[in-house]
């Protein structure tokens, strides 16, 4: 299984600011994903982070609000821009460690509170 | 369209009772994968199982067992002799070969095991 770390683990931010979340994997992985879990809710996919090209965003999520970088096969960042209290959520990075086995593991998450 | 339904919002049992968490899915993909994840109060998402659509064999792992029935589009999860440490939110998820392995999550079932 892949070992995934995320930084920061939690943060409290002011409205209107931006936060960049980092996701680091201990091995090269083909696919990396970013999910959001709003309080008391299930997980919703934000985007697929593609190495060497722009991320693929799901309906309801846009690049201006959630820019994503994927400079290599072990690292990705998600930025939450111009934050509002509605962005308070847990943001999780996940990886597909093997396209054959399709085992998907999640990072520990970043708990974001926007005041 | 893909959809996962977990009709049980919350289940409460007494320790040592058996409990079954239901999961019903919808997909048009001919090949797909089904997952169960556990999210304890600490918040991390713990991978429990992945099942391929072409493998309907039931699986047992310790006190956990899974019943996959394609005919009813269900992938139910049973915990035998439940323990307090099993208290968590459990998510069922689906991904399809045609959808680039992104996960569609159910709404989750909160399990409370009382001593």
Descriptive report:
- The complex is a heterodimer of chains A (115) and B (115).
- Helix content of chain A is 0%, strand content 50%.
- Chain A is mainly β.
- In chain B, strands 2, 5, 6, 10, 11 and 12 form a six-stranded mixed β-sheet that branches. A four-stranded antiparallel β-sheet of chain B has the order 3-9-8-7, with no helix packed on it. Chain B has a two-stranded antiparallel ribbon with strand order 1-4.
- The model of chain B has no long low-confidence stretch (mean pLDDT 92).
- Classes of the chains: A mainly beta (115), B mainly beta (115).
- The interface between A and B is medium-sized, with 26 and 20 residues.
Which descriptors apply to this entry?
heterodimer, A: 115 residues, mainly beta, B: mainly beta, six-stranded mixed beta sheet, four-stranded antiparallel beta sheet
Topology:
The complex is a heterodimer of chains A (115) and B (115).
Chain A: E1 4-7, E2 10-13, E3 19-25, E4 31-37, E5 43-49, E6 56-57, E7 68-72, E8 75-80, E9 89-96, E10 104-106, E11 110-114
Parallel strand pairs in A: 2-11
Antiparallel strand pairs in A: 1-3, 3-8, 4-5, 4-9, 5-6, 7-8, 9-10, 9-11
Chain B: E1 3-5, E2 10-14, E3 19-21, E4 24-26, E5 32-39, E6 46-52, E7 59-61, E8 64-69, E9 74-79, E10 88-96, E11 104-105, E12 109-114
Parallel strand pairs in B: 2-12
Antiparallel strand pairs in B: 1-4, 3-9, 5-6, 5-10, 7-8, 8-9, 10-11, 10-12
